[in-house]
Amino acid sequence: MAVIQLQEGVLPQVTPSGNIAVLAITKHGVQTARKLHELFPAFDIYYMNKFAQGDEEERGFQLFEGSVRMLYPALFPAYQGIISIISLGAVVRMIAPLLIDKKVDPAVVVIDDKAEHVISVLSGHLGGANELTREVAAALEARAVITTASDVQKTIAVDLFGRRFGWVWDSADKLTPVSASVVNEEPVAVVQESGEPGWWPEDTLLPANIRVYADIAEALAAKPHGALVVSHRLLQPEEQVILANGVLYRPKVIVLGIGCNRGTAREEIEAVVKETLQELQFSLLSVKAICTIDLKKDEAGLLELCEQYKWPLVCYTPAELNEMPIEAPSETVFKFTGAYGVSEPAVKRYIGHPELALVKKKSGNVTISVGVLKH
What we know:
By secondary structure, the protein is an alpha/beta fold.
């Protein structure tokens, strides 16, 4: 099999088959790496050629010769996580020149040579190193070493708040100072206007310094040091004061129903979507899906828009749409589609309730309806 030859100044070629790479450079480390592959078959294994056992090609392992330091520049952009069975200090020195930002750096985990400790080193939250550390430590019956303050104190991880529900930040500018307020046990307000409610485990008490408020005005009156605001709305100027040391999260709750003439360009549909959301004072970041009739499942403009924003396109049959009550059934629409409406019943079917933020608006070649999911 081909062996990666590591040379100074030459970027080695790697061919990932999974998202996690495991590196080993010692005899005991190789044993641990091979064990990890048995426990996690999707892990890609890399170790020094001198420890080859003859089955590497069959098992998809990759051998290398030279300093492992020269392998990291190729692995960093290629993997979501890198597990190094190498001393912590050596790993820190080797990866230091490669670090960019916690939002893009891969998770880095270190295992000691006896596999007694699994240490989360880099991108603990956003990159998933803490979770990877726990999983690997449990599998190896080793001790997980995690030093992130929010994990140690069992409080809210500001950069992960709502991530499992798909919430996104409107801006990351205040992540660090708000995180400091949380872990330093300063008063922190949580205001949730929409989105999933189960962001804190029901069997655990919320830390005493974190209080939940009914709305932004009530939270501002309490003068917290930091704030976590969950809303699909565009905040008004008087409300934006709370973001002086606050993070605004956008839950995926807005559902768009769209009907359009055949051949309508993506640009026109997108313009109507943005204009409509601005009129409603809703955030584009909170859009969860676009719904329409199945006749539009191959509509190029819709498909391009959904691809651009990574929105699913949910299509319903005329019969499914006709099951929904609508305000103004159209015989003309029925004549051409078999449904008495498209945008309005499509949204109502998706969100599961009849109240819409916008029942229907016609603009050029596009008809749009807007609903908000209730949780």
